[in-house]
Amino acid sequence: MTPETARWWQRGIVYQIYPRSFQDANGDGVGDLRGIIQRLDYLRWLGVDAIWLSPIYPSPMKDFGYDVADYTGIHPLFGDMADFDRLLDEAHRRDLKVILDFVPNHSSDRHPWFLASRSSRDDPRRDWYIWRDPGLEGGPPNNWLSVFGGSAWEWDEATGQYYYHAFLKEQPDLNWRNPELRRAMHDVLRFWLARGVDGFRVDVIYHLIKDDQFRDNPLNADWRPGQDPFARVIPFYTTDRPEVQDVVRELRAVIDEFPDRLLIGEISLPIERLVAYYGADLDGAHLPFNFQLIDTPWHARTIDFLVREYERHLPPGGWPNWVLGNHDKPRIASRVGRGQARVAALLLLTLRGTPTLYCGDEIGMTDVPIPPDRVQDPFEKNVPGLGLGRDPQRTPMQWEAGPGAGFTAGDPWLPIAADADRVNVAAQRGDPGSLMSFYRELIALRTREPAFSVGTFRVIEAAGDVLAYERRHGGRAFAVAMNLGGEPHAAELQAGRVVLSTEGGRAGEAVGGAVALRGGEGLVVALDGA
Ligand code: GLC
User: Fold this and answer.
1) pTM of the full structure
2) Smallest CA separation from ligand 1 atom 3, residue
3) What CA dihedral angle connects 350, 351, 352 and 355, to 10 degrees?
């Protein structure tokens, strides 16, 4: 691979925007499309190449947009189609790609398709959703559970059957075994692709097909009360079914009707299952999201191990990718601590594979404690107190000091972090030693040096708290060394010159042999005579 043959999503960096919390232009306390347009220059300045927007479609917002009531519209909260077209245009003028969230596993229960489906057993749309008679002893057809707690089956009095919902009961699952439904969804993709959208992140793509015999899921013998109730069963018959690969292949074929578009799949599966989603002939998702860094314990050897496992399982020609955070998981600065936030950034942006970063992580936003009366997330409401709620990582972007943090002139839909007056874009922009300045330098380095995007990857050292690896391309080589602990350590490196350091100040330093690293410090070294 060379920089010339690499596709934009192989060279580029993806930035996830959570639209409700990014920028509010009309003062209603919720972010919107015009707000995003106002911040495009910031994103260009930061240096990312693509933005992925969490759902912006009409929705009753039971799951904050992941319950879609119209796949080809814009929710008035966010603006209208003219705003969207302008966003697309303004982004493209700045050389930023736009990726939409596509939520095909379920619709809102207010979607006209579901209203038709539940209207009668004979409705032509009945089979677009998953309907079943009660089990033999009455009650739900089987033991399938909802990710958000309780049975995945909801009784419909009027037509005397249950419907299946992998998430909320207001999110009935669509039936991807039905060819008409498939065609309708393909047309949804075409609608946006024809408007100029550059790709999709497909929500829970591995959920799309369920067992056609509706067999009970196996019980999880390791589950204990007090743990995530969904983990009581192993979702063997409800996710990652073999037939889902055909569905993915068809989605990809639609994407390929248009030049240079991208298909990302959201998949929470172990590495060996995840890689199946590249497709048997690389005809599946371009990037099955790799969430390994989100759940990994922060140790050099563990990270080394998972990088190796990932590389070992990648199909030939399959392009790797890494994700450090998103709107569903605790923020990286909370998971590893602010002292490791730079090391985490260094890792994300120098590993081999497309990086996706989550809005706000570049300034080190942490999870915001949500008082009980301000909880919004239905997950927290259904399964309270287990720490599963996702509001803490969805709070408004901190742009500047002041009451609305530059996010809103109104009342924000979720509380703004208590430290927003200190931790914000404006403050960090003026500070060359800030985390955000570090992100920007790192992004610039990655963009300028093909070794980091298309280069080879080799681990130099992974022991204790020290992780070091080499990236190499076309006669240029770099060592990346980091200290994942709080105590000083040394990394054994070839001779070279520091080009970037987490602490600043070391750029230009000649190093070689045992290179001292302070706690939480990371370095990028351009190796001599590479
Ligand atoms: C995905 C989304 C999450 C949503 C769920 C149901 O995991 O990222 O936010 O709640 O799917 O659509």
Assistant:
1) 0.98
2) 328
3) -80
